[in-house]
From TrEMBL:
Protein name (database record): UPF0200 protein N186_04645
Native source species: Thermofilum adornatum
Highest taxon, organism lineage: Archaea
Upper taxonomic lineage: Archaea, Thermoproteota, Thermoprotei, Thermofilales, Thermofilaceae
Protein keywords: ATP-binding, Nucleotide-binding
Residues reported in the UniProt entry to bind ATP: G14, L15, P16, G17, S18, G19, K20, T21
GO molecular function, one term: ATP binding
Length: 194
């Protein structure tokens, strides 16, 4: 088994607007390095002089995976992880099982956390967030969800070790739940390094 600098990789998955970014922000407040797979796509788009709309990023995501393999975004994210000396990292945004297996082969310990919220809740969050790649219409939201599911996101969610439901609660409550999970994972990771 090839080995990463990181002993533990916490992989986070879920459909757009489910709460992956909130989970990652909580991790950052706890001193855990976070790597967002979507940032790899956004950086690639900027390098190519392209805009970062959902349509562009979706097309690039499919093109890159078709050209370089379904784990290419994970591979490029892992290159960034290798530039650190972290014992534990969060990787946000897994989309397919190839990415899952890639990271599982690269770390001593992996944990897959899936975050779930209803479509209506997620759509409202994305409209509120207003990032350049967020859908402004319900039809665009459904198209994006379908693209994510076609990549294999549903299978990744089904493989998760931990499922967090982020529906019908305050952001503070959800952040507290994330903190509890992350503390347990930190304690387990520190046990690996002794």
């Amino acid at each position: 088994m090839s080995r990463s600098v990181a002993k533990t990789i916490i992989m986070v998955t879920g459909l757009p607007g489910s709460g992956k970014t909130v989970f990652s922000k909580v991790a950052e407040t706890m001193g855990i390095l976070v790597f967002r797979m979507g940032d790899v796509l956004r950086e690639y788009a900027v390098e190519k002089g392209l805009d970062t709309t959902d349509e562009t990023l979706g097309r690039l995501s499919l093109e890159l995976r078709e050209r370089y393999g379904r784990a290419v975004i994970a591979e490029r994210t892992f290159e960034k992880i290798m530039g650190t000396n972290a014992d534990i990292v969060v990787v946000e945004g897994l989309r397919n099982v190839e990415e899952f297996f890639f990271f599982r082969e690269k770390a001593q310990n992996t944990v897959l956390v899936a975050i779930h919220a209803s479509p209506n809740t997620r759509y409202a969050r994305l409209r509120e967030r207003g990032r350049s790649d967020d859908p402004s219409r319900w039809e665009d939201f459904l198209t994006r969800d379908q693209r994510e599911l076609n990549l294999g996101l549903g299978t990744v969610i089904a493989l998760s070790d931990i499922i967090l439901i982020n529906d019908g609660k305050t952001i503070e409550t959800f952040m507290d739940e994330c903190r509890v999970i992350l503390r347990k994972l930190l304690a387990k990771s520190q046990g690996l390094s002794t």
